[in-house]
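Journal club side-thread
Mid-discussion, someone asked how the predicted structure for our own chain would compare to the paper's figures. Pasting it here so we can look after the session.
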Amino acid sequence: MKVLIACEYSGTVRDAFIARGHDAMSCDLLPTDKKGPHYQGSVFDIINDGWDLMVAHPPCTYLCNSGVCWLYKQQDRFDKMRAGAEFFKQLLEADIPHIAVENPIMHKYAKDIVGRGPDQIIQPWMFGHKEKKGTGLWLKGLPKLKPTTDLKDETDALPIAVQQRIHWQAPRKDRWKVRSTTFKGIAKAMAKQWGALELAEA
Protein backbone atom coordinates (compact mmCIF):
# COMPACT_ATOMS: atom_id res chain seq x y z
CA MET A 1 0.00 0.00 0.00
CA LYS A 2 1.24 3.50 -0.85
CA VAL A 3 0.86 5.60 2.31
CA LEU A 4 1.33 9.32 2.88
CA ILE A 5 1.80 10.57 6.43
CA ALA A 6 1.07 14.28 6.13
CA CYS A 7 2.32 16.93 8.55
CA GLU A 8 4.69 14.52 10.29
CA TYR A 9 8.36 15.22 11.01
CA SER A 10 8.85 12.61 13.76
CA GLY A 11 8.62 9.61 11.42
CA THR A 12 6.67 7.66 14.04
CA VAL A 13 3.61 6.74 11.95
CA ARG A 14 5.64 6.50 8.73
CA ASP A 15 8.04 4.00 10.29
CA ALA A 16 5.17 1.93 11.74
CA PHE A 17 3.76 1.45 8.23
CA ILE A 18 7.21 0.75 6.75
CA ALA A 19 7.78 -1.92 9.43
CA ARG A 20 4.72 -3.73 8.10
CA GLY A 21 5.97 -3.67 4.51
CA HIS A 22 4.17 -0.61 3.13
CA ASP A 23 5.56 2.07 0.83
CA ALA A 24 5.20 4.97 3.27
CA MET A 25 6.51 8.52 3.21
CA SER A 26 6.15 11.39 5.65
CA CYS A 27 5.74 15.02 4.60
CA ASP A 28 6.18 18.26 6.51
CA LEU A 29 7.57 21.76 6.16
CA LEU A 30 10.23 20.64 8.64
CA PRO A 31 12.91 18.02 7.97
CA THR A 32 12.31 14.56 9.41
CA ASP A 33 13.66 13.77 12.87
CA LYS A 34 14.47 10.20 11.81
CA LYS A 35 16.15 9.05 8.63
CA GLY A 36 13.59 7.68 6.18
CA PRO A 37 11.41 8.60 3.17
CA HIS A 38 10.36 12.22 3.69
CA TYR A 39 9.25 15.13 1.54
CA GLN A 40 10.08 18.53 3.01
CA GLY A 41 7.59 21.00 1.63
CA SER A 42 3.87 21.53 1.17
CA VAL A 43 1.72 18.41 1.28
CA PHE A 44 -0.21 19.77 -1.71
CA ASP A 45 2.90 19.38 -3.86
CA ILE A 46 2.50 15.59 -3.64
CA ILE A 47 -1.06 14.94 -2.48
CA ASN A 48 -2.18 13.78 -5.94
CA ASP A 49 0.66 11.29 -6.44
CA GLY A 50 -1.50 8.17 -6.31
CA TRP A 51 -1.68 7.45 -2.58
CA ASP A 52 -3.87 4.61 -1.27
CA LEU A 53 -4.01 5.96 2.26
CA MET A 54 -3.22 9.24 3.98
CA VAL A 55 -2.86 9.77 7.71
CA ALA A 56 -2.64 13.51 8.39
CA HIS A 57 -1.69 15.44 11.51
CA PRO A 58 -2.41 19.11 10.68
CA PRO A 59 -1.40 21.81 13.19
CA CYS A 60 -3.91 22.16 16.02
CA THR A 61 -2.79 25.43 17.63
CA TYR A 62 -5.81 27.43 16.48
CA LEU A 63 -8.31 24.57 16.25
CA CYS A 64 -8.19 22.80 19.60
CA ASN A 65 -10.82 23.36 22.25
CA SER A 66 -8.20 24.01 24.92
CA GLY A 67 -7.21 27.26 23.20
CA VAL A 68 -10.63 28.59 22.21
CA CYS A 69 -10.54 31.40 24.80
CA TRP A 70 -7.58 32.96 22.99
CA LEU A 71 -9.68 33.56 19.87
CA TYR A 72 -11.04 36.69 21.57
CA LYS A 73 -7.79 37.79 23.21
CA GLN A 74 -5.22 37.78 20.42
CA GLN A 75 -5.40 39.85 17.25
CA ASP A 76 -5.69 37.91 13.97
CA ARG A 77 -6.29 34.63 15.83
CA PHE A 78 -9.70 34.13 14.19
CA ASP A 79 -8.10 34.54 10.74
CA LYS A 80 -5.42 31.99 11.63
CA MET A 81 -8.11 29.65 12.93
CA ARG A 82 -10.08 29.91 9.67
CA ALA A 83 -6.94 29.21 7.63
CA GLY A 84 -6.10 26.21 9.81
CA ALA A 85 -9.62 24.81 9.56
CA GLU A 86 -9.67 25.22 5.77
CA PHE A 87 -6.32 23.42 5.55
CA PHE A 88 -7.75 20.61 7.67
CA LYS A 89 -10.83 20.40 5.43
CA GLN A 90 -8.70 20.25 2.26
CA LEU A 91 -6.80 17.28 3.67
CA LEU A 92 -10.01 15.48 4.64
CA GLU A 93 -11.51 16.03 1.18
CA ALA A 94 -8.41 15.01 -0.79
CA ASP A 95 -8.82 12.57 -3.69
CA ILE A 96 -7.40 9.60 -1.77
CA PRO A 97 -9.51 6.47 -1.08
CA HIS A 98 -8.63 6.10 2.60
CA ILE A 99 -8.01 9.10 4.85
CA ALA A 100 -7.58 9.70 8.57
CA VAL A 101 -7.07 13.24 9.86
CA GLU A 102 -6.01 13.48 13.50
CA ASN A 103 -6.39 16.41 15.90
CA PRO A 104 -7.10 17.10 19.57
CA ILE A 105 -10.69 17.86 20.58
CA MET A 106 -11.78 20.68 18.26
CA HIS A 107 -13.75 23.80 19.22
CA LYS A 108 -17.09 24.61 17.59
CA TYR A 109 -15.82 27.39 15.32
CA ALA A 110 -13.30 25.16 13.60
CA LYS A 111 -15.77 22.28 13.52
CA ASP A 112 -18.29 24.48 11.68
CA ILE A 113 -15.72 25.17 8.95
CA VAL A 114 -14.58 21.55 8.69
CA GLY A 115 -18.23 20.53 8.43
CA ARG A 116 -18.36 17.78 11.02
CA GLY A 117 -16.87 16.45 14.19
CA PRO A 118 -14.60 13.43 14.54
CA ASP A 119 -15.76 9.90 13.82
CA GLN A 120 -13.85 8.59 16.82
CA ILE A 121 -12.14 9.82 19.98
CA ILE A 122 -9.15 7.75 21.09
CA GLN A 123 -6.93 7.81 24.18
CA PRO A 124 -3.33 6.60 24.61
CA TRP A 125 -4.46 4.21 27.37
CA MET A 126 -6.43 2.30 24.73
CA PHE A 127 -3.15 1.42 23.03
CA GLY A 128 -0.78 0.53 25.85
CA HIS A 129 0.25 3.94 27.20
CA LYS A 130 -0.66 4.96 30.75
CA GLU A 131 -1.62 8.47 29.71
CA LYS A 132 -4.64 10.56 28.81
CA LYS A 133 -4.82 12.73 25.72
CA GLY A 134 -8.18 12.75 23.95
CA THR A 135 -7.62 12.77 20.20
CA GLY A 136 -10.20 12.95 17.43
CA LEU A 137 -10.01 10.96 14.20
CA TRP A 138 -11.89 12.17 11.13
CA LEU A 139 -12.18 9.15 8.84
CA LYS A 140 -12.90 8.61 5.15
CA GLY A 141 -13.06 5.04 3.83
CA LEU A 142 -11.55 3.68 7.04
CA PRO A 143 -12.95 1.74 10.01
CA LYS A 144 -12.56 3.04 13.54
CA LEU A 145 -9.38 1.95 15.30
CA LYS A 146 -9.86 -0.96 17.69
CA PRO A 147 -8.17 -0.57 21.09
CA THR A 148 -5.25 -2.94 21.55
CA THR A 149 -4.38 -2.74 25.26
CA ASP A 150 -6.87 -1.10 27.64
CA LEU A 151 -4.99 0.45 30.55
CA LYS A 152 -7.71 2.84 31.74
CA ASP A 153 -7.92 1.52 35.31
CA GLU A 154 -4.16 1.63 35.72
CA THR A 155 -4.04 5.10 34.19
CA ASP A 156 -6.79 6.46 36.45
CA ALA A 157 -4.80 5.29 39.48
CA LEU A 158 -1.83 7.49 38.57
CA PRO A 159 -1.32 11.13 39.63
CA ILE A 160 -2.84 13.60 37.18
CA ALA A 161 0.61 14.92 36.26
CA VAL A 162 1.57 11.41 35.13
CA GLN A 163 -1.74 10.73 33.35
CA GLN A 164 -1.23 13.93 31.40
CA ARG A 165 2.56 13.83 31.23
CA ILE A 166 2.84 15.81 28.02
CA HIS A 167 0.46 18.56 29.14
CA TRP A 168 2.27 18.97 32.45
CA GLN A 169 5.79 18.99 31.04
CA ALA A 170 7.96 21.88 32.14
CA PRO A 171 8.81 24.45 29.44
CA ARG A 172 11.66 23.24 27.23
CA LYS A 173 12.98 23.99 23.79
CA ASP A 174 11.38 20.95 22.11
CA ARG A 175 8.19 20.77 24.24
CA TRP A 176 6.00 21.50 21.21
CA LYS A 177 7.57 18.61 19.31
CA VAL A 178 7.06 16.15 22.16
CA ARG A 179 3.42 17.25 22.53
CA SER A 180 2.65 16.70 18.85
CA THR A 181 4.34 13.31 18.35
CA THR A 182 2.00 10.33 17.90
CA PHE A 183 2.16 7.67 20.61
CA LYS A 184 3.91 4.56 19.26
CA GLY A 185 1.08 2.26 20.33
CA ILE A 186 -1.40 4.29 18.28
CA ALA A 187 0.96 4.39 15.29
CA LYS A 188 1.36 0.60 15.40
CA ALA A 189 -2.42 0.11 15.59
CA MET A 190 -2.93 2.37 12.55
CA ALA A 191 -0.35 0.45 10.53
CA LYS A 192 -1.64 -2.98 11.53
CA GLN A 193 -5.38 -2.30 11.22
CA TRP A 194 -5.55 0.18 8.35
CA GLY A 195 -2.65 -1.42 6.49
CA ALA A 196 -4.62 -4.67 6.46
CA LEU A 197 -7.23 -3.03 4.20
CA GLU A 198 -4.95 -3.73 1.25
CA LEU A 199 -5.24 -7.46 1.91
CA ALA A 200 -9.00 -7.24 2.35
CA GLU A 201 -9.42 -5.41 -0.95
CA ALA A 202 -7.04 -7.63 -2.96
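Post-session note: The chain has one domain: 2-121+135-142+183-201.
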